[in-house]
Amino acid sequence: MSPFEASDTALTGLGYPLLDERAKLTAAVTQPVTPRAGWEVISALVTVKAYPSISRKSGESVCVAGVRLDTPRPEWVRFFPVGFRALPKHRQFEKYQVVQLLAHRGSTDRRQESFKPNLDSMVLGPVVDSQSGTWRRRWEVLGDLAGETTTCALHRAAKSAGQAAPSLGLIKPSVQDLIIEDNPAYIPGGSTQIDVDLFGTEREVLEATPFIARYKYFCAEPGCRGHEQQIVDWESGQLARRNLASHSPDEAKKLHREKFLDEMCGANKDTYFFVGNQHQHPRSFLVLGVFWPKRYTRPHPALAF
Ligand SMILES: [Zn+2]
C-alpha cells in the first residue's frame, strides 16, 4: 500500500469526508436564490432559534443564528428580525436546517455577524439530523468554532470594543446548575393584545415563556469566576408551556431540569453552549442554545496527518 492510500484510508476510516460537508450542504439547495444587486446571497446552517420577543420597532421577532456555509471557513451569522410565526409554512425552517437567502448589513446593528434578512427570498435546504446522537455532520459544519472562544474572552472583548467585538460563540461550559424561576411577565393564554400582522391576519397570541431558566457554569478560561446566564432557546420556552399544560408548576420545573440539565448536560454528553450578546447591551450575554452530542464524538482532524 502506498503512503497516499494509507493516509486516504486513515481519513475515511476515522470518518472524515473527502469532500467538505459545508459545500455539500450548499449544493443540496435545489432551487438556489437568484443574486440581486445590493444584496448578499448567504447560505447557512441554522443552529439557534430563540424564543420570540416583541419590540416596538420590529414587532414579534426571533433571533436566528447559525454558521455560514459559503465562506472559506465556518463563520457565525445572525439574522434579525425574523418574524418567524408570520412566515409561510414552507419557509418555517427548523434548527439545523440549511437556509439560503438575500441579506444585507443593517444600519443600526454594527455587530460583525448581524444581517438583515430578506425573508421573501429565503429557500430551505436539507435538515442535518443528529445521526444517532453522534452529531457527526453538525460537528463538521461547526469545525473549529466549537470551543474556539470562552465566555470570559467574549466579555472582555465586548467591554473594550462594544458592538465591534465578536457577539456569538460556541463555548465549552462546566455546568454547575440550572436555576428555574417563574417569569413574572408570563400570562397564561398570552397578553390581551390582539396579535395581527401587517396583512391583518390574526395569529395565535404569543405567550411569554413561563419560566426563566439560568445556567450557572464556568467557561474554559483558567481562573474563570463563573457565569450565570438565561437560556432563551425557543425549545426551552415551548417545553415549559407543554409541561405546564399537564403538570403542576413544581413538576413542570422538575421536568425542565431533567431535560435541560440532567439530559443535555449529562456526563455522557460533550455539551457546548451557543452564547450571544444583545444588540443594545453588548456586554450582556445569553445562552441561545445547547449543543449536546454524545461524548467522544468530536472528530479530531489534526490526528489525520
Ligand atoms: Zn468564564
Structural overview:
- The chain has two domains: 3-127, Nucleic acid-binding proteins (OB fold (Dihydrolipoamide Acetyltransferase, E2P), Beta Barrel), CATH 2.40.50; 144-304.
- The chain has 305 residues and is of the alpha+beta class.
- Strands 1-3-4-6-5 form a five-stranded mixed beta barrel. A three-stranded antiparallel sheet has the order 7-11-12.
- A hairpin with a 2-residue loop joins strand 11 and strand 12.
- It is built from six helices and twelve strands.
- The chain is globular and about 55 Å long.
- Helix 5 packs antiparallel against helix 6.
- Bound molecules: zinc ion.
- The site of zinc ion (ZN) has 7 residues, from helix 4.
Task: Lay out the secondary structure.
Blueprint: H1 3-13, H2 21-27, E1 40-49, E2 53-55, E3 59-68, E4 76-82, E5 97-104, E6 114-127, H3 136-142, H4 151-161, E7 168-171, E8 174-182, E9 211-218, E10 227-230, H5 234-246, H6 249-263, E11 272-278, E12 281-291
This protein binds zinc ion (ZN).
Structure summary:
This protein has two domains: 3-127, OB fold (Dihydrolipoamide Acetyltransferase, E2P) (Beta Barrel), CATH 2.40.50.140; 144-304. 21% of the residues lie in helices and 31% in strands. It has helices at residues 3-13, 21-27, 136-142, 151-161, 234-246, 249-263, and strands at 40-49, 53-55, 59-68, 76-82, 97-104, 114-127, 168-171, 174-182, 211-218, 227-230, 272-278, 281-291.
